[in-house]
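Good day; I would like, with your permission, to put a structural problem before you. The record follows directly beneath this note:
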Amino acid sequence: MRRAASPGRTQPPQLSASPAHAPALALHADPVIERALGYPYRAPDHAYLFWQGRTFPLPEDDAITHPDEALTRLLADDMLPAPLMAILRRDQDEGLAGMKRRHPVIACGSNRAPERLAQKYGSTLPDAVIPVTRITLRDHAVCYAATVTAYGAIPATIVPWPEARAELMVTWLTDRQLAIMNETEDLGVVYALEPMPAEAVSCRDIPFLHYRAIPGLFRDGDGAPVALAAVPQALPGNLRIRQEEEVLHSLHLLCRQDAKLAGETPDAFCAFVHRLVADAGFRQNVMAWLAARAEKPFGS
Protein backbone atom coordinates (compact mmCIF):
# COMPACT_ATOMS: atom_id res chain seq x y z
CA MET A 1 0.00 0.00 0.00
CA ARG A 2 1.26 3.48 -0.80
CA ARG A 3 2.46 5.22 2.33
CA ALA A 4 1.37 8.74 3.15
CA ALA A 5 3.29 11.32 1.20
CA SER A 6 6.07 12.42 3.47
CA PRO A 7 4.89 15.69 5.00
CA GLY A 8 7.15 18.07 3.13
CA ARG A 9 8.99 21.07 4.48
CA THR A 10 9.29 22.99 1.22
CA GLN A 11 6.07 24.96 1.70
CA PRO A 12 5.00 26.83 4.85
CA PRO A 13 1.86 25.68 6.64
CA GLN A 14 -1.37 27.26 5.43
CA LEU A 15 -4.19 28.15 7.81
CA SER A 16 -7.42 26.28 7.16
CA ALA A 17 -9.93 28.68 5.64
CA SER A 18 -13.06 27.52 7.46
CA PRO A 19 -13.61 28.23 11.18
CA ALA A 20 -14.31 25.23 13.40
CA HIS A 21 -17.56 26.61 14.73
CA ALA A 22 -19.22 27.13 11.35
CA PRO A 23 -18.82 24.18 8.95
CA ALA A 24 -19.97 25.09 5.45
CA LEU A 25 -22.59 22.88 3.84
CA ALA A 26 -25.43 23.09 1.41
CA LEU A 27 -28.83 23.52 3.02
CA HIS A 28 -30.93 20.36 2.99
CA ALA A 29 -34.52 19.92 4.08
CA ASP A 30 -33.80 16.23 4.69
CA PRO A 31 -32.68 15.81 8.34
CA VAL A 32 -30.70 12.63 7.54
CA ILE A 33 -28.66 14.42 4.90
CA GLU A 34 -28.30 17.53 7.04
CA ARG A 35 -26.97 15.54 9.97
CA ALA A 36 -24.43 13.68 7.84
CA LEU A 37 -23.19 16.78 6.04
CA GLY A 38 -23.26 18.93 9.18
CA TYR A 39 -20.35 17.07 10.77
CA PRO A 40 -18.47 18.16 12.91
CA TYR A 41 -21.26 20.61 13.84
CA ARG A 42 -21.19 24.08 15.31
CA ALA A 43 -19.15 24.66 18.44
CA PRO A 44 -17.96 27.69 20.41
CA ASP A 45 -14.47 28.91 19.54
CA HIS A 46 -13.76 29.51 23.23
CA ALA A 47 -13.63 27.46 26.43
CA TYR A 48 -17.02 26.70 27.93
CA LEU A 49 -18.93 24.73 30.54
CA PHE A 50 -21.59 22.33 29.21
CA TRP A 51 -24.72 21.53 31.22
CA GLN A 52 -28.20 20.43 30.10
CA GLY A 53 -27.55 21.44 26.49
CA ARG A 54 -26.45 24.93 27.52
CA THR A 55 -23.00 26.50 27.41
CA PHE A 56 -21.40 28.98 29.81
CA PRO A 57 -18.14 30.69 28.73
CA LEU A 58 -15.10 29.90 30.87
CA PRO A 59 -12.41 32.52 31.60
CA GLU A 60 -10.05 32.03 28.68
CA ASP A 61 -6.74 32.84 30.34
CA ASP A 62 -7.05 30.18 33.05
CA ALA A 63 -9.20 27.66 31.20
CA ILE A 64 -6.43 26.66 28.83
CA THR A 65 -4.13 25.19 31.50
CA HIS A 66 -6.04 25.48 34.78
CA PRO A 67 -9.72 24.61 34.31
CA ASP A 68 -10.27 24.26 38.05
CA GLU A 69 -9.27 27.90 38.54
CA ALA A 70 -11.48 28.90 35.61
CA LEU A 71 -14.45 27.20 37.28
CA THR A 72 -13.66 29.01 40.54
CA ARG A 73 -13.73 32.36 38.78
CA LEU A 74 -16.92 31.47 36.93
CA LEU A 75 -18.61 30.47 40.17
CA ALA A 76 -17.49 33.69 41.86
CA ASP A 77 -19.39 35.72 39.26
CA ASP A 78 -22.61 34.26 40.72
CA MET A 79 -24.23 34.23 37.27
CA LEU A 80 -24.87 30.49 36.97
CA PRO A 81 -28.17 28.69 37.60
CA ALA A 82 -28.47 27.58 41.23
CA PRO A 83 -28.67 23.83 40.41
CA LEU A 84 -25.48 24.07 38.37
CA MET A 85 -23.69 25.95 41.14
CA ALA A 86 -24.70 23.20 43.58
CA ILE A 87 -23.28 20.52 41.29
CA LEU A 88 -19.99 22.39 40.92
CA ARG A 89 -19.63 22.69 44.69
CA ARG A 90 -20.61 19.09 45.43
CA ASP A 91 -17.11 17.58 45.27
CA GLN A 92 -14.89 20.47 46.30
CA ASP A 93 -12.42 18.14 48.02
CA GLU A 94 -11.56 16.97 44.50
CA GLY A 95 -11.75 20.45 43.02
CA LEU A 96 -14.85 22.15 41.65
CA ALA A 97 -16.88 19.63 39.64
CA GLY A 98 -14.37 16.98 40.74
CA MET A 99 -11.76 18.33 38.31
CA LYS A 100 -8.87 16.52 40.01
CA ARG A 101 -10.22 13.14 39.01
CA ARG A 102 -11.47 14.00 35.51
CA HIS A 103 -9.90 12.69 32.32
CA PRO A 104 -8.82 15.32 29.73
CA VAL A 105 -9.85 13.91 26.33
CA ILE A 106 -8.98 15.88 23.20
CA ALA A 107 -11.97 16.44 20.91
CA CYS A 108 -10.95 16.78 17.26
CA GLY A 109 -14.39 16.33 15.69
CA SER A 110 -17.99 16.47 16.84
CA ASN A 111 -17.26 15.81 20.52
CA ARG A 112 -16.38 19.48 20.89
CA ALA A 113 -19.91 20.49 19.83
CA PRO A 114 -22.64 21.07 22.46
CA GLU A 115 -25.16 19.45 20.11
CA ARG A 116 -23.29 16.14 20.19
CA LEU A 117 -22.61 16.29 23.93
CA ALA A 118 -26.35 16.72 24.46
CA GLN A 119 -27.07 13.72 22.24
CA LYS A 120 -24.52 11.55 24.03
CA TYR A 121 -25.40 12.46 27.61
CA GLY A 122 -28.92 13.89 27.51
CA SER A 123 -30.76 10.65 28.25
CA THR A 124 -28.25 8.80 30.44
CA LEU A 125 -26.70 11.71 32.37
CA PRO A 126 -29.04 14.70 31.96
CA ASP A 127 -27.20 16.67 34.67
CA ALA A 128 -23.74 15.99 33.24
CA VAL A 129 -21.37 18.91 33.73
CA ILE A 130 -18.49 18.94 31.25
CA PRO A 131 -15.79 21.62 31.14
CA VAL A 132 -14.49 22.09 27.58
CA THR A 133 -11.20 23.94 27.18
CA ARG A 134 -8.88 24.80 24.30
CA ILE A 135 -5.58 23.21 23.34
CA THR A 136 -2.96 23.56 20.60
CA LEU A 137 -1.46 20.43 19.04
CA ARG A 138 1.94 20.69 17.38
CA ASP A 139 3.10 18.44 14.53
CA HIS A 140 -0.36 16.90 14.30
CA ALA A 141 -3.27 17.37 11.90
CA VAL A 142 -6.96 16.44 11.96
CA CYS A 143 -7.91 14.27 8.98
CA TYR A 144 -10.89 12.21 7.89
CA ALA A 145 -10.89 8.63 9.19
CA ALA A 146 -11.44 5.56 7.03
CA THR A 147 -14.82 4.77 8.53
CA VAL A 148 -18.47 5.87 8.49
CA THR A 149 -20.65 6.76 11.48
CA ALA A 150 -24.11 5.32 12.08
CA TYR A 151 -25.53 8.70 11.00
CA GLY A 152 -23.68 8.68 7.68
CA ALA A 153 -20.73 11.01 8.30
CA ILE A 154 -17.03 10.40 7.77
CA PRO A 155 -15.54 11.31 11.17
CA ALA A 156 -12.21 12.80 12.22
CA THR A 157 -9.02 11.46 13.70
CA ILE A 158 -5.75 13.01 14.87
CA VAL A 159 -2.66 12.11 12.86
CA PRO A 160 1.03 12.93 13.41
CA TRP A 161 2.11 15.37 10.68
CA PRO A 162 5.33 17.42 10.87
CA GLU A 163 4.88 21.20 10.73
CA ALA A 164 1.11 20.98 11.17
CA ARG A 165 -0.66 22.74 14.02
CA ALA A 166 -4.27 22.27 15.14
CA GLU A 167 -6.42 24.32 17.51
CA LEU A 168 -8.71 21.83 19.26
CA MET A 169 -10.86 21.39 22.37
CA VAL A 170 -10.57 19.18 25.45
CA THR A 171 -13.53 17.55 27.20
CA TRP A 172 -12.86 16.95 30.90
CA LEU A 173 -14.78 13.76 31.68
CA THR A 174 -15.62 11.87 34.87
CA ASP A 175 -15.18 8.09 34.94
CA ARG A 176 -18.83 7.56 34.05
CA GLN A 177 -18.81 10.23 31.35
CA LEU A 178 -15.71 8.65 29.83
CA ALA A 179 -17.34 5.20 29.85
CA ILE A 180 -20.33 6.60 27.96
CA MET A 181 -18.07 8.43 25.52
CA ASN A 182 -16.12 5.22 24.89
CA GLU A 183 -19.34 3.42 23.99
CA THR A 184 -20.30 6.11 21.49
CA GLU A 185 -16.85 5.88 19.90
CA ASP A 186 -17.01 2.07 19.46
CA LEU A 187 -13.86 1.70 21.54
CA GLY A 188 -11.64 -1.14 20.39
CA VAL A 189 -13.44 -1.47 17.05
CA VAL A 190 -13.44 1.94 15.38
CA TYR A 191 -11.36 4.03 17.80
CA ALA A 192 -8.61 3.41 20.34
CA LEU A 193 -8.19 5.69 23.36
CA GLU A 194 -4.52 6.62 23.61
CA PRO A 195 -2.28 9.13 25.41
CA MET A 196 -1.20 12.18 23.44
CA PRO A 197 2.59 12.63 23.36
CA ALA A 198 3.59 15.37 25.80
CA GLU A 199 5.73 17.15 23.22
CA ALA A 200 2.68 17.62 20.98
CA VAL A 201 0.54 19.60 23.41
CA SER A 202 0.66 23.15 24.70
CA CYS A 203 0.22 22.00 28.33
CA ARG A 204 2.85 19.33 28.91
CA ASP A 205 2.08 18.69 32.59
CA ILE A 206 -1.40 17.28 31.86
CA PRO A 207 -1.85 13.66 30.61
CA PHE A 208 -4.17 14.26 27.65
CA LEU A 209 -5.95 11.40 25.89
CA HIS A 210 -7.33 11.21 22.35
CA TYR A 211 -9.27 8.82 20.13
CA ARG A 212 -7.30 7.36 17.21
CA ALA A 213 -9.16 5.80 14.29
CA ILE A 214 -8.08 2.15 14.16
CA PRO A 215 -8.73 1.67 10.40
CA GLY A 216 -6.49 4.59 9.43
CA LEU A 217 -7.10 7.60 7.17
CA PHE A 218 -9.66 8.09 4.43
CA ARG A 219 -8.03 8.42 0.99
CA ASP A 220 -9.71 10.35 -1.80
CA GLY A 221 -9.81 9.46 -5.49
CA ASP A 222 -6.15 10.43 -5.88
CA GLY A 223 -5.17 8.16 -2.99
CA ALA A 224 -4.30 11.02 -0.65
CA PRO A 225 -5.45 11.71 2.93
CA VAL A 226 -7.68 14.74 3.48
CA ALA A 227 -7.76 17.25 6.36
CA LEU A 228 -10.96 18.69 7.86
CA ALA A 229 -11.71 22.21 6.64
CA ALA A 230 -13.99 22.79 9.64
CA VAL A 231 -11.09 22.55 12.11
CA PRO A 232 -8.77 25.56 12.49
CA GLN A 233 -5.34 24.19 11.67
CA ALA A 234 -2.16 25.30 9.94
CA LEU A 235 -1.12 22.64 7.46
CA PRO A 236 1.79 21.91 5.11
CA GLY A 237 0.98 22.72 1.50
CA ASN A 238 0.90 19.05 0.45
CA LEU A 239 -2.08 18.15 2.68
CA ARG A 240 -5.39 19.01 1.02
CA ILE A 241 -8.40 20.39 2.93
CA ARG A 242 -12.02 19.47 2.28
CA GLN A 243 -15.49 19.92 3.78
CA GLU A 244 -17.53 16.90 4.93
CA GLU A 245 -19.89 17.23 1.95
CA GLU A 246 -17.01 17.07 -0.53
CA VAL A 247 -15.54 13.98 1.14
CA LEU A 248 -18.89 12.17 1.22
CA HIS A 249 -19.39 12.92 -2.47
CA SER A 250 -15.91 11.50 -3.09
CA LEU A 251 -16.82 8.35 -1.14
CA HIS A 252 -20.02 7.97 -3.16
CA LEU A 253 -18.10 8.18 -6.43
CA LEU A 254 -15.46 5.71 -5.24
CA CYS A 255 -18.11 3.20 -4.16
CA ARG A 256 -19.88 3.47 -7.52
CA GLN A 257 -16.58 2.76 -9.28
CA ASP A 258 -15.58 -0.21 -7.11
CA ALA A 259 -16.36 -3.65 -8.54
CA LYS A 260 -17.58 -5.06 -5.21
CA LEU A 261 -19.70 -2.09 -4.11
CA ALA A 262 -21.00 -0.70 -7.40
CA GLY A 263 -23.96 -3.07 -7.56
CA GLU A 264 -25.35 -2.06 -4.16
CA THR A 265 -24.42 1.64 -4.26
CA PRO A 266 -27.34 3.93 -5.22
CA ASP A 267 -26.70 6.24 -8.16
CA ALA A 268 -28.12 9.29 -6.36
CA PHE A 269 -25.98 10.86 -3.64
CA CYS A 270 -28.83 11.40 -1.15
CA ALA A 271 -30.01 7.82 -1.62
CA PHE A 272 -26.44 6.69 -0.93
CA VAL A 273 -26.30 8.58 2.38
CA HIS A 274 -29.72 7.25 3.35
CA ARG A 275 -28.59 3.69 2.70
CA LEU A 276 -25.44 4.20 4.79
CA VAL A 277 -27.69 5.18 7.69
CA ALA A 278 -30.55 2.71 7.25
CA ASP A 279 -28.70 -0.38 6.01
CA ALA A 280 -26.16 -1.57 8.61
CA GLY A 281 -24.95 -4.36 6.33
CA PHE A 282 -24.19 -1.97 3.49
CA ARG A 283 -22.50 0.44 5.91
CA GLN A 284 -20.30 -2.38 7.26
CA ASN A 285 -19.33 -3.34 3.71
CA VAL A 286 -18.33 0.24 2.98
CA MET A 287 -16.39 0.46 6.25
CA ALA A 288 -14.50 -2.77 5.48
CA TRP A 289 -13.69 -1.48 2.00
CA LEU A 290 -12.47 1.84 3.44
CA ALA A 291 -10.27 0.06 5.99
CA ALA A 292 -8.72 -2.11 3.28
CA ARG A 293 -7.63 0.94 1.24
CA ALA A 294 -6.87 3.21 4.23
CA GLU A 295 -3.71 5.22 4.65
CA LYS A 296 -1.82 4.43 7.83
CA PRO A 297 -0.91 7.66 9.64
CA PHE A 298 2.57 9.03 9.08
CA GLY A 299 4.78 7.98 11.98
CA SER A 300 2.62 5.00 13.04
Summary: The chain has one domain: 14-21+29-292. The two ends are 14 Å apart (CA to CA).
